[in-house]
Amino acid sequence: MLRGLIKGDNAFVPTAVLRVAVRNGVDVAALLVTEQGRVRGDADIVFDGAPAHPSGAVLLSAGEDGTVWLETGLASVEEEITRVLVVASTQEGALRDVRGLSVEVLGPDGATVVGYEVTDAGAETAMVLAELYRRSGGWKFRAVGQGYVDGLTGLAVDHGVDVDEDPQEVLERTPTPATPPATTPAEAPAQGLRLTRDQILDMTPEQIRALALAQKQARAEAPDRAPLTAPSLPVPQPDPSAWTCGPVFKPRTVTGRDNDVITVKDLPQGPVMVELTLEGDGYTGLWPLDESNAKGRSLVSTTEKDFRGRVIASVPERGRLRLRLEASGSWQVRILPLAEARRLSKDRVESWGPDVLLHTGGTADVTFHYKGDSNFIGHLYRLAGHTDPTTLPEPGRSVVSEIGARRETLPLPEGPLLVYLSAADGPWDARLKDVQPHSSGQAADGPVKLPEPRGALGWLRRARR
User: Fold this and answer.
1) Secondary structure (3-state) at 218
2) Strand pairing class (321-326; 58-62)
3) What domain range includes position 67?
């Protein structure tokens, strides 16, 4: 039994790492909002497609028996964020159909701190269940229970989420000849039309608010009139240049010393980045291990002191990545999604060692300045049209293959593409110049379509299924 609050109640909670349990079988998200009650961007939405906030303050994971967990490190929440909203939604049916809908906060010792059981849900399909908010130098928990009949879209608009799709991601829409749509969203209720969620997601926030007002007025004028079904619109198709390669997951970190076998479990299948940082000298080697513990192709082979770099490995179908490391000294290994690859731009990117770079604009020239004295080798992976997250496309030509320090400018084809610097024992920098617009119309220096920036659309589309 929860130490229950009723709707509107609040209580102080420890400023510590808390675990928030949401039950029962609903989709869960957390919105990190500012004092204005708005997210700063898609990165402030934590859901199963983007389960970790960039700050590391909020992490989402699924448990057993329909429970979803939000691990919230309140001391790590960025100063600009004043509230963490706990959101629940359904893909089918209303929240009143969910039995045992509740939110419970557990302290570092696993004991229940406070909780709230929703007993008055109605036809809503999305709800702000509760919030953690700053107060008097600490944090409090409030039982909110604010529902949205228009689902995640209405909730998103209220909290500053951009519900519009990128212009390059939407095909030109034409009305269905047999049943033409309303001239404007506001006219839909007057014509007896009920817009679908797909149509709502194609509107601007202003149009959505106008639609809500028009529907309210229409209900007041004719409360008994049954709504009709609005004509469907073509499903928006993604730009073929959108980068969808590689799984997205919470980064994993392993630390140790000297020679070791590293095992990281429960990873999604597909290509990942392995970031190795070493404090020591002598020989350093890194290899993937297969199911029979045989070494695969070498990922790292160097005698550089204090080595650091990123290489690409592949997680097998069973989700268990095993690596053999030969090293002298303390080390850290991080397993990262390709979504965290460094982005090439007109600004200088500086790094050391092997690395993975992402280019998403149009044709461009890239200037490399390598300051090492050994191999500097890089290959291209063209990602346009490659939609299988479990593989990389075949590598293309070598973009650079040199020995010793040098400065070189090379042409790049249109993105999206990865530049994999598989060998670079030394410092280097890179920058783009003469960048042309992307053929899809995307500006070279504009928003990059990675899984995280598109998180809001992925989250909102859950309501369409």
Assistant:
1) helix
2) unpaired
3) 4-163
Backbone angles phi, psi at 328, to 5 degrees: -120, 110
Task: Tell me what pLDDT residue 365 has.
Answer: 94
CB-based contact 123:148 (threshold 8 Å): no
For the chain, what's the residue count? Answer: 465
Q: Output the six-digit token pair for 86.
A: 């706990």
Backbone angles phi, psi at 154, to 5 degrees: -65, -40
CA distance 133 to 11: 10
pTM, whole model, 2 decimals? 0.48
Cβ atoms of 126 and 462 within 8 Å: the answer is no
The residues, any chain, with a CB within 8 Å of residue 129's CB and separated by 6 or more, are 22, 86, 87, 88, 101, 103, 116, 118, 143, 144, 145
What's phi and psi for 221, nearest 5 deg? -80, -35
Burial per residue of 162-179, b for 16 or more beta-carbon CB atoms within 10 angstroms, e otherwise: ebbbbebbbeeeeeeeee
Please give the single-letter amino acid code of residue 125.
Answer: T
Can you give the CATH number for the domain in which 34 is found?
A: 2.60.60.30
One-letter amino acid at 85 equals: L
Helix (H, G, I), strand (E, B) or coil at 209: helix
Q: Write down the H helix ranges in 113-268.
A: 151-158, 197-201, 205-221
Domain count of the fold of the chain: 3
> What confidence score (pLDDT) does residue 62 get?
83
Q: Are residues 145 and 83 in the same domain?
A: yes
Question: What's the chain's Rg over C-alpha atoms?
Answer: 25
Which residue in this structure is represented by tokens 């209220």?
158
| Residues linked to residue 350 through DSSP beta bridges, in sequence order | 429
Low-confidence ranges of the chain (pLDDT < 50): 1-2, 166-183, 185-203, 205, 224-242, 442-454, 463-465
Which secondary-structure segment (H or E) carries 278?
A: strand 270-279
What pLDDT is stored for residue 49 in this prediction? 80
CA distance 161 to 80: 17
Do 176 and 159 lie in one domain? The reply is: no
Distance, in Å, from the CA atom of 130 to the CA atom of 141, rounded to the nearest integer, reads 7
* Side chain identity at residue 69, one-letter code: W
Q: Which helix (H) or strand (E) holds 456?
A: helix 455-460
8 and 73 belong to one structural domain: yes
Residue 126 CB-density burial (10 A; 0-12 exposed, 13-18 middle, 19+ buried): buried
pLDDT of residue 251: 85
Q: Where are the beta strands (DSSP E) in 149-269?
A: 193-194, 228-229, 252-257, 260-264
Among 163, 183, 212, give the residue marking a domain's end.
163
**What does the pLDDT read at residue 452?**
39
